Amino acid sequence: MMRSLFSGVSGLKTHQTRMDVIGNNIANVNTVAYKSQNMIFSDLLYQTTQAASGANADTGRGGINARQIGLGAKTAAINTAITRQGSAQSTNNPWDVMISGESFFIVNSGSQNFFTRDGSFTIDGAGNLVMASTGYRVMGWGLDEDGNIQSGPVQALQIMKAENMTAPAEATTKAIVSGILDKNDTNVHSKAGLVRTLSFYDARGYLYTAQFSIHALSQDGNYYVQLDDIMDSNGMSLKDYYNVNDISQIATFGEDKSIEETKVYGLPDDGSVTYKDGANPGEGTFIVNYNYGEILTGFDTNVMMSMAENLKVTVPAADTPNFAANSDVTMQGDVTLDKSILQEKYGLTYDEKEKQYYYRPETVNADGTITYGDRKPLGPSDVTNPATAIDKDGWQEVLSKLGGNVTLATGGTPAAPLLSVDDKGAVTISFTAQFKTNQESDFTAATGKFGVTLNYPADKETIMEKAYGLHSTDNMKYDINYITPDGHASVTRVESYTGNALVFDTKTGKFSYVGDPEQNAVTLNFAGSTTDLTGANVDLGHFSDLSIDFSTIRNVNNGKTSTIAFDSGDGGENNLGSGRKEGALIGVEIGQDGKIRASYDNGLSKLLGQIAVTKFANAAGLAKAGNNLYSATLNSGEFDGTGIDITSDGEGTMESGVLEMSNVDLAGEFTEMITTQRGFQANSRIITTSDSMLEELVNLKR
């Protein structure tokens, strides 16, 4: 009977322990990152009153079980649901961080490392990232001298140290060129080239803009890049600011280079150019046919010429006259103007019934103003003699609005009528126009062409352009070596430029090199000093040489549009070498990978460090140390002192502005409380019942 008393006592004790665990869980229902616990019962020792026996074949008796009386219950284990994720609670505090996954933050008390899921951090007076509750310093990794994360043994993260509060001014030393260079982009074939700009800083944080241009060379896949100018932030060229002759006195980009090639060119097959070999070696005569606009001054700008039909040249008595420069040439032709043009463009009124036009004569006053007269008829269209019946002076006034020296023809060619109006109001005009020749030329009536005689070698430059279509430019020079009797010319082309060659693989369009073979980058070199036009010395030491990387650009089809862009920096995570003005810290953020980045008002984003985490083989084996902290035990596994990147191998992520809540399930805890209470009551009844039985035993003596 005494055994039942002690069994009841053990039951009371174990249920009290279970109630203690439940009470602790409920008490920590709002504790940041608290992990709930649960208790496991086990039975105590047993008193064996009779041992078990086996079956006996000799006696024929069977076996019997052991007779054992239990001595109560005990606490077998108290487990922690340490790997069960708590819900997220938004705080909008950038220093609050929640871990998603099974990792732990590492914090240090000054003498010992602890581990926690509580990410309620803050910055202390020394700029350290610490736990808000204990002041323990958060551990992670700092940066190496190149600004990259230096993984290794964890160290305390000092975020707000002096060098992180401001971003000092820094000269730009690196730039990268990206995008597509389309060979069909008209800009790369123009004189100005494909113009692009690069913004950069000097050592004092002043901003400048370098203007570059990319030009196509004659060989496919070959281009060159040149420096055109450098401007300050006010748009003034540095050659003007420092009073020097050329920007090359301040900065240079590449060298003077040339490409020489010799080819044979033939005359046009259409017969527009003929050649007669001269009597003396190295001499000859070219006859080149010219269009009217190339010979007659003002021809192309005369509106009537663009609409003319049956255009002819009135020539002197000779069939093939020679016109000296500045000679008068008369052109005759026909133009048909429909009713809409005459009404809308020239302000005429057409009377459908009378089949004639009306106009208002204009008088130009001395002060330049125009006075319009009364409406006046221009004459009917169906008269017997239109030349006399139609108001030629009125029509001449109307035609004067077309511009140029155009008058109504007086007869001859083109054939009469000189002016007529059809039944739909369309007017056909026969006109004459006077022009002057801009150079000596011959006119061939049979072809209606003006011809110019060019003598080789006296007219060499004109011959190359007109006979062979070779036009020399500032960087492209042609020179004839000799001409064969059939008019073929051996020509040497010299292509020169100042800058850096830009070459692509014509099979793939991939970048090959810039400047020289096997070179990915070229340098914009600044002079340390120069001399201005007055002879005074100019210090340029605040500029730094700038390496420009072209290796990522491609020479492929992009719809005749190039997307080339110059950007400062190396294009890496921290965009090193981009340069900057001095800036003040305006914000800090913690990324999902635990990396801490600072933002400055100069646009710089700087990596300050990374919060490290760790994992344990048996996280439930960690010992609770209070204050939301855990310490390593022999059963949890040891911390290696290095930590891990939370994003490596899918370990999880960090979320800034969020805290992990307690994972206590109140519904479950209250249910456990009910069963614990009932268990406690039942065990207390064991004691009271056993006591009653003992009392009856004592009463037997009475």
What does this structure look like?
This protein has 702 residues and is mainly beta. The strands form 13 sheets. Strands 7, 8, 11, 12, 13, 44, 45, 46, 47, 48 and 49 form an eleven-stranded antiparallel sheet that branches. Strands 15, 16, 17, 19, 36, 37 and 38 form a seven-stranded antiparallel sheet that branches. Strands 22, 23, 25, 31, 32 and 33 form a six-stranded antiparallel sheet that branches. A hairpin with a 5-residue loop joins β32 and β33 (427-437).
Attribute tags:
seven-stranded antiparallel sheet, mainly beta
Describe the global form.
elongated
For the record, give the distance between the C-alpha atoms at the N and C termini, rounded to a whole number. Answer: 20 Å
- Please give the radius of gyration in angstroms: 50 Å
Number of helices: 10
Helix content: 10-25%
**Whole-number mean pLDDT:** 86
In short:
The protein is mainly beta. It has 10 helices and 51 strands. Strands 7, 8, 11, 12, 13, 44, 45, 46, 47, 48 and 49 form an 11-stranded antiparallel beta sheet that branches.
Write the layout of secondary structure elements.
Blueprint: H1 2-27, E1 37-43, E2 46-50, E3 67-70, E4 73-80, E5 88-90, E6 97-101, E7 104-108, E8 113-116, E9 121-123, E10 129-131, E11 137-141, E12 155-156, H2 162-165, E13 166-167, E14 174-178, E15 194-201, E16 207-216, E17 222-231, H3 238-241, E18 251-252, E19 255-265, E20 273-277, E21 284-290, H4 292-295, E22 296-297, H5 303-307, E23 309-314, E24 322-323, E25 328-337, H6 339-344, E26 349-351, E27 356-359, E28 362-364, E29 370-372, E30 376-380, H7 386-389, H8 392-399, E31 406-408, E32 419-421, E33 427-437, E34 441-444, E35 449-456, H9 460-466, E36 476-483, E37 489-504, E38 511-514, E39 521-526, E40 529-531, E41 537-539, E42 546-549, E43 565-568, E44 583-590, E45 595-600, E46 605-611, E47 613-614, E48 623-626, E49 629-631, E50 652-656, E51 658-660, H10 666-699
Parallel strand pairs: 14-42
Antiparallel strand pairs: 1-4, 2-3, 5-51, 6-50, 7-8, 7-11, 7-47, 8-49, 9-10, 11-12, 11-46, 13-44, 14-43, 15-16, 16-17, 17-37, 18-39, 19-37, 20-21, 21-35, 22-33, 23-25, 24-34, 25-33, 26-27, 27-30, 28-29, 31-33, 32-33, 34-35, 36-37, 37-38, 39-42, 40-41, 44-45, 45-46, 48-49
Helix pairs in contact: 1-10
